Amino acid sequence: MKVSQLVVQTLREAPASAELPSHIFLLRGGYIKQLASGLYSVLPLGKRVLQKIENIIREEMNRISGQEIDLPLVHPKELWEESGRYDAIGDELLRFKDRTNHDMVLAMTHEEAVTDLIRHVVSSYKQLPCMVYQFKLKFRDEPRARGGLIRVREFVMKDAYSFHTTHEDLDKYYQLAYEAYKNIFQRVGIAPVIVQSDTGIMGGKIAHEFMLEAPSGEDNLIIAEDGGYRANQEIAVFDKESVKEDEKALEKVPTPGKKSIKDVSELLKVETSQLMKCVFYQMNDSLVTVLMRGDLNVSEIKIKNYLKVPAIFPAEDKLILKFGFVPGYASAVGIPSNKNLRILVDDSVVNGSNFVAGANEKGFHIKNVNFNRDFNSSDIGDFALAESGHKCKGSEVLLKAVKGIEIGNIFKLGTKFSTSMKAEFLDEKGKSNPMVMGCYGIGVGRLMAAVVENSHDKFGPIWPKSIAPYQVHLLNIGADPDVVSTCDHLYADLQKEGYDVLYDDRDERPGVKFKDADLWGSPVRIGVSKKTIAEKACEWKLRNETSFEKISLDRVLLKLKDYFGI
Prior knowledge:
The chain is α+β, with helices and mostly antiparallel strands and 566 residues long. Helices cover 27% and strands 30% of the residues.
């Protein structure tokens, strides 16, 4: 492609709203253009990168027996009601009425549609297992679109779905998908951090996220310093190092004006780990209180998963007081049971003893509060947030928190969708069983942005050979007829040999061309000038290196074959 014919416009400066390197360089290089918040048009350079990423993904999906399909973007409301997600998902799911006044949705994911497809095509165990996948536009009414393609409202997702007769068969295929994902990310130049994750709106039992460790990431990852444990912070577990002592008698003590953990700790000269705090949430007219050791923070994801609800909200003081708690001085001691009250007790409290807790009286706390003796609950679990400095469960290895960008995820969905939507098969004995499902997703645009986050300098992206929009960037330096003629012939020869070549044939200053070459990030840049022609040579520069070398023109093809291995 000649740059004079390329549909592109580079920018010397990125818009002020662009902060992440990928957002800045994809805008400045003319790969994408913002249409509205979270909505981007993709220009030819960006489309070439996306197509190459898709081809890599397609090859790896086909290697694990995937079959490509295409599902509708618009779904009827009834399909999502079958799965139970129509009411469970909030405003991210865009709902509308068609011209016949029928309720429809713009799909943000395709579990319902693919389950409907397979339940009508597959009926026997003889047809299983199978896996289908697609590259499909999706829409999520994201409330906080940011970072260019990192968090958008409209996006292309590669989503794959596998169907099995047993959970054991899903386990085997899940491992195949796991390895295929590692191959995909390796081929685009990323070494992912793979972590256990929350299943979220997808449901199911087990999920893994493939993350790019990056300061610009939105996800918090918890990683053991020896690499032996990795999980999303939302679900990470850790050693709470609780110690049991002989129970002591309750003692009410004055704590005037001292409401915070820090203030009470300093006043009573006790460690924050010896305090017990109450964290309150509300669900309509019901109250949920989480009892937690004072030095720990609450993981709201763990609470939502335990309660099996899509959302929880901080409780208002009015509701807290209604159930007998006193904000700032609250505990479960002396609180009467109520059908609209759930008391969740973190295991750090159950396994500890003699805590300082609120007296449910303004200006007072109680010493030596113990679970079972002074209050009780059947809702016991791990509700604490893992953070840097905590220890791995069962070891002395420290955990650290790092930022990451999610670039792919895989889920063991189990029978969540097949049961509710009656996607069943007949086994060898003629008995009907729900299909066991797996789900495997990669956001294609986000992956392109993640590659830039992972591989760039101050001048622009440094694309891996596998997905660069063009392998070779050829440019004429000066408008001398001999320079132009040499470049034209070299351009033809390189194309004939099968290389993707971007030929900057514009009548522009060398500085402009060099800056654009850096933004377009081709692995190899070849420059031809009047000076190099006099030596029957050209300038050879790799994008990931700062210096160039002169090579003879008759060595260009050999050097390219050596560099690209083709």
